[in-house]
Amino acid sequence: MLAMPVMADQRSAWQALREGKAFLLLRHTTAPGVGDPEGFRLGDCSTQRNLDEKGRREARRWGRLLKGRDVEQPRLYSSNWCRAQDTAQEMGLGAVETLSALDSFFSDPDSQAAQTVELRKAIEKVPKDRPVVMVSHQVNIKALTGFSPRSGEGMIIALPLDDPPKVLARIAQP
Question: Which end of the chain is least crowded, N or C, by CB within 10 Å?
């Protein structure tokens, strides 16, 4: 098991997020099941595993938590999966932009290395003029950080990215 390099003082992690010295990487909130049904299609939520009402409530709590921590007008990015987009939208913090580098590779594990390289590049390219919040999937977050987050768990990660990335704080589902 990897040792967790987490700061004892979460206030510093939240401050780094507000200042653009870190970003929040969040696993989408509760969407019952595992993976997606066979034949699912991006862009057609009826073919995917989606948030349930609990997941929607969790996402709204994330929005309240971020507002309460003075994370204002964040740049919101999500994968192209409906459950990730819905998590970001339900936060109620602004427009959500999809970012393919955040897309799940659960059904194509051979693409893990290439997908993780693309995610690292995308993180470095994102403007840091305001806080950055990214919503992705368990497999992507584990590949990047080495940690397997629960549904709705977030990690504040230092910028620029180290190898491995420095997790400043793990934030449980609020």
Answer: N
